[in-house]
Write a structure and sequence with these properties.
Oligomer: single chain
Structural class: alpha/beta
Bound molecules: alpha-D-glucopyranose
Radius of gyration: 24 Å
Distance between the termini: 25 Å
Strand content: 15-25%
Number of helices: 13
Number of strands: 23
Shape: globular
């Protein structure tokens, strides 16, 4: 068993976690000062690792996902010494640290791109994807970028177009070029030698494109999940078979320095194709890949179960699911599901088979905070899910003493300090669930089996088993309060009664005997029952 299989990961968007110098933007010293929230102190959440979104030198066109120096810290976030303090503070607490590796593109300001752009004969030019105009002078083909418009940008100086899968400020690297493997391998080496424990690997499915630049077909009338966007089916510039070579290249680079480093891939593709990125055996490619079909599910028992069981069905026997309910690119689940669902959603996320990734602020129920009309900072509309962490009920929310870079949510009602002092709060429930998971072999690493419930509505129920420990989890997803027969599909194989271990409802006490043929569940209630 690896450390990350039973583990819980926690995503920090560094711009919004904690600001130590009053400039309104979060920074590395801010994170260090808040590590007690995460692990190693009385009342910590108890997570096992943090993934920190990029803090490398960057002009900030995509808030750090446009890197101009992969091995330097952007002055907004600190300096190498502040990174070392953060790493040491985390490791002292037994908290591992994952960085964000962005292999697919650099910033236009990266010296490699600037050099390559300066002349067609500069050796750096081949690190990127350049092409001549079409006969009419327009872009080489019709590929569209994720954020809209053509994926090609004209470079007047050198008379060619360059490819960008995201913003025009993010030129795509050409992974068919061996020098790209070498240079990215050096980045991996640099940070692993510095002491990090692995990487979340960004947008991996865009790292290879059709060398013939074939045209994408139009988007289909019946939407192809994740592959139809911006008017086309991204057949030739996304999730090409050769992407696995890129994953293996990153894997080899990591193994050379620190065998067993965790590699967690990001790719918005259907689950049956995602499984491929886990490779043929453990340690061959990614260890984990985000299950985005799960993140995209509604708060609805049937669709959640379907997403969970698709991963169970498609992953190789050695594969291990990885799920998040929120991240910095999508509306928060407090907003998508509604606040009423948050306690049960926490139980779901922390009791499924697989590694959960929590997004900072979800543990206190932070919801999207829309910015002022016409003042969007992120051109792709993701500001609302990235607002500052709400630490305390005070101006600046304990996040900053200055003017926050994004509007802060309702910190009077939702904040860490108040919830830490309240044993019935969402934060206290997260702590309890994480502790429960760490202490339970069934939750941490046991098998999963979905159960058909009667009536067939509203409840997602499953068994987690390991050795003699058997747990039945029942999650009511926004339906009606009622009584449910959890034995319906398993009569004879399950005992008639169980013992309540934990409910999301603060007024139900552990130890209560529960008749499994008539389990009373309130709307949006979750139960862990020992059987
Ligand atoms: C990933 C990141 C997202 C970024 C994009 C381009 O999807 O999560 O924030 O904009 O890659 O790097």
């Amino acid at each position: 068993m690896t450390w990350w299989q039973p583990g819980v990961l926690y995503q920090i968007y560094p711009r919004s976690f904690a600001d130590s110098n009053g400039d309104g933007i979060g920074d590395l010293d801010g994170i260090t000062a808040r590590l007690d929230h995460l692990r190693g102190a009385p009342g910590s959440l108890g997570v096992d690792a943090i993934w920190i979104s990029p803090f490398f030198r960057s002009p900030g066109a995509d808030f750090g996902y446009d890197v101009s120096d992969y091995t330097d810290i952007d002055p907004v976030y600190g300096d190498p010494a502040s990174f070392d303090r953060l790493l040491a503070g985390a490791h002292q607490r037994g908290l591992r640290v994952l960085l964000d590796l962005i292999p697919g593109h650099t910033s236009v300001e990266h010296p490699w791109f600037r050099a390559g752009r300066s002349s067609r004969t500069d050796p750096h030019r081949r690190l990127y994807i350049w092409a001549d105009p079409a006969p009419d002078g327009g872009p080489p083909n019709g590929w569209t970028s994720t954020f809209g418009g053509s994926a090609w940008e004209w470079d007047e100086g050198s008379g060619q177009y360059y490819l960008h899968s995201f913003y025009p400020e993010q030129p795509d690297l050409d992974w068919r070029e061996p020098a790209v493997h070498e240079r990215m391998g050096e980045v991996v080496r640099f940070w692993l030698e510095r002491g990090v424990d692995g990487f979340r690997v960004d947008a991996i499915d865009r790292s290879m494109k059709d060398p013939l630049l074939r045209e994408n077909p139009p988007a289909s009338s019946t939407e192809r999940r994740f592959d139809d966007f911006r008017g086309q089916y991204h057949l030739w510039n996304k999730d090409r078979p050769e992407v696995l070579d890129v994953v293996r290249s990153v894997r080899r680079a990591a193994e050379r320095v620190k065998p067993g480093s965790l590699l967690l891939g990001e790719s918005y593709i259907p689950i049956e194709r995602l499984a491929r990125y886990l490779g043929d055996r453990p340690g061959d490619a990614f260890d984990l890949v985000f299950d985005f079909p799960f993140l995209s599910s509604d708060w609805e028992a049937g669709s959640l179960r379907q997403a969970v069981e698709a991963a169970e069905a498609h992953f190789p026997p050695s594969g291990w699911p990885c799920r998040a309910l929120s991240n910095h690119d999508n509306p928060r689940h407090a907003t998508r599901f509604g606040r009423g669902a948050l306690r049960a959603a926490a139980m779901l996320s922390l009791t499924l088979r697989g590694t959960p990734v929590l997004y900072m602020g979800e543990e206190i129920g932070m919801a999207d905070v829309p910015g002022p009309e016409g003042k969007a900072l992120d051109r792709a509309g993701r500001d609302a899910a990235r607002t500052p962490m709400q630490w305390r009920n005070e101006p600046g929310a304990g996040f900053t003493s200055g003017e926050p870079w994004l509007r802060i949510g309702d910190s009077a009602r939702v904040n860490v300090a108040d919830q830490a002092a309240d044993r019935d709060s969402l934060l206290s429930l997260y702590r309890r669930l994480i502790a429960e998971r760490a202490a339970s072999p069934a939750l941490a690493s046991g098998s999963y089996r979905g159960l058909d419930t009667a009536p067939q509505t509203g409840v997602f129920a499953y068994l987690r088993e390991s050795g003699t420990e058997r747990l039945l989890i029942a999650i009511e997803c926004g339906g009606r309060a009622g009584s449910h027969d959890l034995l319906a599909a398993a009569r004879g194989r399950l005992p008639a009664q169980g013992t309540l271990r934990l409910s999301t409802a603060p007024d139900r006490t552990a130890g209560e005997r529960i008749d499994l043929s008539a389990v009373p569940l309130a709307s949006d209630e979750g139960l862990i029952i020992a059987i």
